[in-house]
Amino acid sequence: xxxxxxxxxxxxxxxxxxxxxxxxxxxxxxxxxxxxxxxxxxxxxxxxxxxxxxxxxxxxxxxxxxxxxxxxxxxxxxxxxxxxxxxxxxxxxxxxxxxxxxxxxxxxxxxxxxxxxxxxxxxxxxxxxxxxxxxxxxxxxxxxxxxxxxxxxxxxxxxxxxxxxxxxxxxxxxxxxxxxxxxxxxxxxxxxxxxxxxxxxxxxxxxxxxxxxxxxxxxxxxxxxxxxxxxxxxxxxxxxxxxxxxxxxxx
Length: 251
Description:
This protein is globular. It contains 2 helices and 17 strands. Strand 4 and strand 5 (105-114) form a beta hairpin. The strands form 2 sheets. Strands 2, 7, 8, 9, 10, 12, 13, 15, 16 and 17 form a 10-stranded antiparallel β-sheet that branches. A 7-stranded antiparallel β-sheet has the order 6-5-4-3-11-1-14. By secondary structure, the protein is mainly β. It has helices at residues 11-14, 25-30, and strands at 44-51, 57-64, 74-83, 93-102, 105-114, 121-127, 135-141, 148-153, 156-157, 162-163, 174-180, 191-202, 205-209, 212-217, 221-228, 234-236, 244-250.
């Protein structure tokens, strides 16, 4: 593990994927090894942000902006908490929800739950997500129930309470795009827009605009902050719009 490593393992997404190896035309065409950088290992790479402060949840409206081209592995845009070694006692614990694409499979909204000492559990929430289709997603610690979390989709809780032991007041939430090359050395293509990114100041809510801390930006990717315009569209911004919005893309 490298420093700042906050990764996820899509065990279910990789099953059955077969493509050409590192010397394939897909890898050669890029002229570079996609995803190499400080934030990924074993073919994982990231483009996004970790919040500046600890919070009790994170939310965003996530929209795929281009048709994903996934030669192997997967791409995803997600929000979540935790990660490898981020649980109590150094256990691997995380909870995330987002939009994912993989070869020969409809783009989906998913949730992934990893409790300390257990394998990840992958849950498909919606399938057939189109380019330009937006969904509001969140992970949130429950009011009055420390260490219990739920996944939210389009304003409704879609999981039962999830116990993540000793997780309260522990994590700085993450909003990021992710690519895994299936250990094939290929360059997957993606584009995700994150609108209304916020963090929960209290258990159960009290949502505040996201304040970015560490930036994930591996080779071959780009992250652009966005601002609202008068016609409601999103534009590039050098200022400090609220709520927080950004676009993460492959180059």
